[in-house]
Amino acid sequence: MDLIVKVENLWFSYKSGKFVLKNINVSFDGVSTAIVGQNGAAKTTFVKILKGLLKPTMGDVWINGVNTKETTVAQLAKVVGLVFQDPSEQIFKSKVIDEVMFGPLNIFRDKQYSYQMAIEALKLVGLDGKVNEHPYDLTLSERKLLCIASVLAMDPKVVIFDEPTIAQDRYHIKKIGELVLELEKNGKTVIAITHDMDFVFDYFKRTLVLHRGNLLVDGKTDEILQREDVLKAAGLDTPYIFKISSSVGTVISKLFPI
Amino acid sequence: MGSTEKIKIESLTYAYPFSDKNALENISFSIMPGECVGIIGRNGAGKSTLCLALTGLVPKFFKGRYSGKVLLDGEDVRQISYEKLVTKIGLVLQNPFSQITGARITVYEEVAFGLENLGIPRDEIKQRVEAVLKALDLWEKRDENPFELSGGQLQKLAIASVLVLQPEVLVLDEPTSQLDSGGTKEVFEIISQMKSQGITIVLVEHKYEMLVEYVDKIIFLQEGKMIAFDEAEKIFSLPEIDEYMVGEPIYTKLCKKLNLKNSRGYYPVKFSEAVGILREARCGSDR
């Protein structure tokens, strides 16, 4: 598969001059990837760079073959979609359908096509029965799904989730996880930043560990999440399933795939 | 009639203004002094509304349709003045940004704000703010701007600004939802400290693996109704619990699949107990 996102020798600093991302080299294809790291690891900064909202201080980011320095955020929006952590920062229309149609209309798709895309996206997240409701009459979890639909309606190749499980109940964490699997199956490149290690274990094949702006490791989720040394260095927890495995002295994940 | 309950709720039904739907429906329970009680349920179950009702903000601030009673030390919250209420019961909101006043520019002043509003003498304010900041390990940060703190520190500051009022009951609405594992552990350590000081605690939390280690009992809400109010292992062993799709601690799920129960006949909810039972089962199967 083509490398849809390619990051080469990326360094980034805000105005202070201190580098918050240091020499990152990584690429993404169709495999769903979790970027983990504790609060302050520069996860959100990294995602903003992928979305083109911030430009590299040094190095390059290529999205679909185009250098983010040589294009606009509007152009990139056709390829990269970002689901915000807090739905209330993303929602601003007074009707569910208008909220979801806003994205495609904004990148100059025609009205009929935008409507179709919106309905399809709402079906995928299970909100097609609520097209005429006010977003703030929905529950917090439904608003999260609405935000996901708004991004999917633009049909981006890359879908980025910023902390998708925060403040969600267990049922909806599972639902969001299943959406990740579905999107991956449909050929999307899914990237999520999170510190929910059990969510990572359940739904992502690949994991990157970020710590204080450094990319510590990049590899298969099953292998990385068992490396207690790496997780500890990055201030992360081992998923409960591995804690149980090592305490009981057997490989629970093989015995019992959750 | 010496009622000893710290909190008593009698047939509480409540709907927000302009809403036909009951956010809470016929809720009744009692909490004894010093108990630590968890509230679980899916998003929209009424957990936050119940927190608002416990602290009197429903119906004093959020009007709407209200029937039944919330009693604090036997007194109806509607009859208690705000000045008295804030020293009896404190509420820590889910999002610290909603809690921090922003009216003060240092951590120290932010924590002192509540006491200043109550007209507490200056010397006492100094003592109390210092004690709380030291207890929560924020003393070093006292001259910093609240909005320059990390997420974990900001959440601790929100808790400090409530604790400084020395409430007898502390209500926390998903206090760790924005935090990573380090911040989550810190918040639970504070909760454990408060519990050992005899403060009554009510806590909304989705991180069951942490919650069950601290609570005496759990209130389980679903669509505004109280499904159960019981010990954690009994709640997560309810035969119909799967239908509510509320989830369970990960190792409880594992023990359910393997049908492993503890000596009391319930699925284990605590880590150490689950490990013990799983080890035993493994030894059995090796033989």
From TrEMBL, chain A:
The keyword Transport applies. Keywords: ATP-binding, Nucleotide-binding, Transport. SMART domains: AAA. Residues 5-237 form the ABC transporter domain. InterPro entries: AAA+_ATPase (IPR003593), ABC_transporter-like_ATP-bd (IPR003439), ABC_transpr_CbiO/EcfA_su (IPR015856), ECF_ABC_transporter_ATP-bd (IPR050095), P-loop_NTPase (IPR027417). It comes from the Bacteria. One of its GO terms (cellular component) is ATP-binding cassette (ABC) transporter complex. One of its GO terms (molecular function) is ATP binding. PANTHER family: ABC-TYPE COBALT TRANSPORT SYSTEM, ATPASE COMPONENT, HEAVY METAL TRANSPORTER. This is ABC transporter ATP-binding protein. It comes from Fervidobacterium thailandense.
